[in-house]
Amino acid sequence: MKYRIASAAVAVSAVLSGTAFAQDKTLTINSFGGAYEQAHRTCVIDPFEKETGAKVQIVTAYSADAFAQLRAQKDAPQFDVINFSGGQEIVGAAEGLLSPIDASKLSNAGDLYDFAKANFAKGEGPAYSIAAIGLVYDSVKSPKAPTSWKDLLDPALSEHLVLTDISNGYGMLGFLMLNQSEGGTLENIQPGLDAVSKLLEAGAIVVSTSPEIQQEFAQNDAWIAPYASDYAYTLRKAGLTAKFVQGSEGTPASFITSNLVANRPNQELALKFIDISISKAAQECFAEALRYSPTNSKAELSGEVAADVAYGEEGVKGLIRFDPAKIEANRKAWVEAWNKTIAQ
């Protein structure tokens, strides 16, 4: 997801001003704007408000910006629930900005896959959706359906391959998976850079944003791109014959988490909001609306929706989460190395 902030500091101030603010019946959360925020309201916020009679105040702020606010407000936080897609909950929990969660207070926690609730005691909230990164391909133009990350190296595809710059979060995860499939690690990304160099020499191109991927598929004869499952759905809605497949070596995952902010007075109400976020109904709704992969094992999806996501025990078994802390620590150096590679 591209990070954006919509005058968040002003919005938070406006939301929380006035002595009439009812702490026990109002929650302040962040959401990510656009279609995501619409789905967030439909799938979670509206059901929460209907069930509890509480009100939810939304600040539109993507993960990096929301985390910066949380840090700045450490002594007087203004969010009750904070949502992240870039692993910021790991750092936030370590810094004491997030509260540990008692799973017994979440009626839906028992239905979550283990990976989605692994660090409640540390303060890391549950993953309530997954953006799965795999192979998006044109099911009509591509000579074969890809099955492996190594298929990206097929010479027959080179002139029809779209790579995404690693300044893009999904692009970073796709690159790290290509690097791993070529024998690289988070300590050594050179195999991935070497592979990218060969692909560019053979005719592949690099774009920076998801709309550029759509343009390449629609206008410039692109057949395949390592990218997120939800984007195959976006391409199909635009009239393109796109499908998504998980690579056999594994599926990088961007965890979208819902986290309990520390030092807030209405944590019971906030826990109720988180509980609804991880419910079967909410996750089915997110999958239907946006093609995010559910983390609730009880979620039931139609065949059409299931084909676009990592679904069920088998589907989630191959999910890989590259350490967000290591990514962040190395991001600057990796981007510099990437830029040198694609400039050659």
TrEMBL record:
List keywords of the entry alphabetically: Periplasm, Signal
Q: Name one Pfam family in it.
A: SBP_bac_8
Q: Name one GO biological process term.
A: thiamine transport
User: What InterPro entries does its record include?
Assistant: SBP
Coiled-coil region list: none
> Which is one Gene Ontology cellular component term of this protein?
outer membrane-bounded periplasmic space
Task: Tell me the first and last residues of the signal peptide.
Answer: 1-22
A molecular function annotated in GO for this UniProt entry is:
thiamine binding
Origin organism is: Oryzicola mucosus
Q: What is the lineage of its organism?
A: Bacteria, Pseudomonadati, Pseudomonadota, Alphaproteobacteria, Hyphomicrobiales
Write the protein's name: ABC transporter substrate-binding protein
